């Protein structure tokens, strides 16, 4: 696997790339991409880091797994390529933004525009086998992305972490709450949202309020 990651991250993650678990992970991922169909495309695995450079990180949104159907995943959690039908969780994210901030529901589900403003859209697992959800879990990705979260917590201040759903909430233990803001809610998936655990969380207006308190520019959601 070619670790094509923006230079701003390399000084902080280079030691991670040299560890045995990451070398094993790289071999596994390279083998999977050679032998079967996987997502996102190999040159987009580290897209979250390439759109959102280390010095620019203001917000972190945590997902679990890339989308596993054709044409959807492009390396940013919850995001899909232009022209792709919006998955249910993304629909509910846009609905919440609409009710929270009055921003009209967008045509494109591509969240690159958020990433380019300093929103790190990080999945815990960065790759998946086509049509097999969770197929690359427990291969080393989680160890790597946990380290990313911890490193961000340790080396920066005033990041807003958005932890949606039980899996993401477990990552709170990696974050120093005296230096950063942690907002939690149910997951935007229909199962959680329809039971009242997502809508009305106002995480998007709250995030911009917290960024303003830290004298940082708001995100144009």
Your description of this structure?
With 221 residues, the chain is of the alpha/beta class. Helices cover 37% and strands 11% of the residues. It has helices at 10-17, 20-35, 47-51, 88-101, 112-115, 141-155, 165-169, 190-193, 203-213, and strands at residues 38-39, 59-63, 119-123, 128-129, 160-164, 181-185. The protein has a four-stranded parallel β-sheet. Strands 1-4 form a two-stranded antiparallel ribbon. The chain is globular, with a radius of gyration of 17 Å.
Quote the beta fraction.
5-15%
Sketch the major β-sheet.
4 strands, parallel
What would you call the quaternary organization?
Answer: single chain
Distance between the termini: 33 Å
Spatially, the strands of the biggest sheet line up as 3-2-5-6
Helical content class = 25-40%
Total number of helices: 9
Secondary-structure element series: HHEHEHHEEHEHEHH
The overall strand count is 6
Output the structural class. Answer: alpha/beta
Q: Report mean pLDDT, rounded to a whole number.
A: 96
What is Rg? 17 Å
In the predicted model, the low-confidence regions spanning at least 5 consecutive residues are none
Overall morphology: globular
How is the secondary structure organized here?
Layout: H1 10-17, H2 20-35, E1 38-39, H3 47-51, E2 59-63, H4 88-101, H5 112-115, E3 119-123, E4 128-129, H6 141-155, E5 160-164, H7 165-169, E6 181-185, H8 190-193, H9 203-213
Parallel strand pairs: 2-3, 2-5, 5-6
Antiparallel strand pairs: 1-4
């Amino acid at each position: 696997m070619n670790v094509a990651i923006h230079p701003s991250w390399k000084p902080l993650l280079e030691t991670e790339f040299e560890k045995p678990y990451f070398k094993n992970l790289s071999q596994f991922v390279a083998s999977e991409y050679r032998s079967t169909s996987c997502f996102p495309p190999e040159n987009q695995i580290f897209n979250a880091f390439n759109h959102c450079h280390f010095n620019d990180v203001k917000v972190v949104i945590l997902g679990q797994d890339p989308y596993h159907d054709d044409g959807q995943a492009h390396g940013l959690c919850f995001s899909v390529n232009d022209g792709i039908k919006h998955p249910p969780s993304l629909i509910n994210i846009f609905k919440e933004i609409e009710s929270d901030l009055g921003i009209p529901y967008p045509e494109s589900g591509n969240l690159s525009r958020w990433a380019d403003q300093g929103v790190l859209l990080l999945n815990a697992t960065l790759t998946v086998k086509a049509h097999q959800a969770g197929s690359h879990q427990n291969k080393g990705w989680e160890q790597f992305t946990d380290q990313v979260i911890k490193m961000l917590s340790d080396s920066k201040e005033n990041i807003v972490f958005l932890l949606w759903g039980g899996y993401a909430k477990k990552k709170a233990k990696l974050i120093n709450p005296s230096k950063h803001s942690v907002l939690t809610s149910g997951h935007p998936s229909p199962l959680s949202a329809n039971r009242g655990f997502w809508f009305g969380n106002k995480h998007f207006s709250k995030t911009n309020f917290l960024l303003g308190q830290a004298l940082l520019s708001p995100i144009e959601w």
